[in-house]
Amino acid sequence: MTAVTLGILRERAPGERRVAATPETVRKFIARGARVLIEPDAGASAGFVDAAYAEAGAETLAAGDILAACDMLLSVQPPPDEALDLLKPGAAIVGLLAPQASDTRAARIRERGLVAFPLERLPRTTRAQSMDVLSSQAGMAGYKAVLIAATLAPRFFPMLTTAAGTIRPAKVLVIGAGVAGLQAIATAKRLGAQVEGFDVRPETREQIESLGGRFLDLGVSAAGEGGYARALSDEERAEQQKRLGAHLGSVDVVVCTAAVPGRPAPKIVTQDMVAGMKPGSVIVDLPAESGGNCEATVPGETRDVGGVTVAGPLALASMGALQASEMYARNVLNFVSLFVDKGELAFDWSDELLARTVWPERETAAASAAA
């Protein structure tokens, strides 16, 4: 019996330095009976050299040869459309694929009968935690966002006592208390800042306070399903903006982290709020790739808006590519281990993690969800 063949290509997306498999996970895939093919320099930008992959048992081949031979392609970002055209009909793909964000990508997946597993669709359950790429990558993004803010801010973060007098700590507000926001709070606190956290989900108060932050209560509560916030009513949004706008005048740094996968980021910080902030203040908008939480954000740019520095960094997790790749690759290994063992590829569609992650959604899974 021929062993299932897994392929890993060098990521093509601009600014993407991560890789979908590391020498550690390659070794574990091979222990499960798989054959692993990898493109030269696939992991170089993340600090993983070809020799390490070869030592782990991977075979190095050109991209075209890998696509023609593999039964499953592992990726971080969606593969280029031309790569999808070269895959075997019925091959599987695992990664952050966002199929509905591109009509041509979606069409190719359907036309070629590819079994796509967009990991952003993975259910947020206890059993899936070890496979949760959104959480692992958000942690790195939250950490890097605060480091960017500290670099851009024209001040120290910690309180300092100097011969020139005492310097007060920077006042940092983190908007959104998901994984990225909580990491941002923890990082800003470690840097010595005075930290506040805001989220419309009341259950986050305890999490924010456990990290040493102060919960900013704006009088709006909007807990939703799946751990995410629900959409605010017009009245709730108006109340939130009124109170937040009044508060931002006393803040030195704002780190925005509110996002829901697959949807545009909610607009929370308006142009008027930015205009009301002190000159020298800084806003770092972590979800800039999905539009950002701040109306003044331009994705990929750092700009001066009336004396306030507004940064919309892209590919934040890639800025910590080595450890982001290690976490991502372990997540992928744990997910793929659900259906690859003893060299065989076998999908159990009664497993909700597979059935709810696969795209297009299978009829059996859709019928089960409707029931």
Automatic annotation (TrEMBL):
Keywords: NAD, NADP, Nucleotide-binding, Translocase. One of its GO terms (molecular function) is oxidoreductase activity. CDD domains: Rubrum_tdh. GO terms for cellular component: plasma membrane. One of its GO terms (biological process) is NADPH regeneration. It catalyses: NAD(+) + NADPH + H(+)(in) = NADH + NADP(+) + H(+)(out). Residues 7-141 form the Alanine dehydrogenase/pyridine nucleotide transhydrogenase N-terminal domain. PANTHER family: NAD(P) TRANSHYDROGENASE, PROTON-TRANSLOCATING NAD(P)(+) TRANSHYDROGENASE. Transmembrane segments: none annotated. This is proton-translocating NAD(P)(+) transhydrogenase. Residues 150-312 form the Alanine dehydrogenase/pyridine nucleotide transhydrogenase NAD(H)-binding domain. Its EC number is 7.1.1.1. The transhydrogenation between NADH and NADP is coupled to respiration and ATP hydrolysis and functions as a proton pump across the membrane. Belongs to the AlaDH/PNT family.
